[in-house]
Design brief:
Blueprint lengths: L22 H18 L1 H33 L1
Keywords: Membrane, Transmembrane, Transmembrane helix
Length: about 80
């Protein structure tokens, strides 16, 4: 008779701790996942950051006259 091991797996052996991952290893894995891409993609991220800052400056230069006009009406 064929046992459906993929549906009903064997129970864990006696004495095994099934508490989940260690908190330190979870923290280290999270740090690696966050810091690794920052190191690897550093130059590209710097380019994207420069583009975002220049786009913000452009939008701000468009909105400053509108803000000054609106605040001139209020005050």
């Amino acid at each position: 008779m064929k046992r459906p091991w993929d549906i009903n797996p064997l129970p864990p052996p006696d004495g095994s701790d099934d508490k989940g991952p260690d908190p330190i290893s979870t923290f280290l894995l999270l740090a690696f996942v966050v810091v690794g891409p920052l190191i690897y993609f550093g130059p590209q991220l710097r380019t994207i950051e420069t583009w975002l800052v220049s786009a913000y400056g452009t939008v701000e230069s468009w909105l400053i006259p509108i803000r000054d006009w609106f605040l001139g009406l209020m005050g």
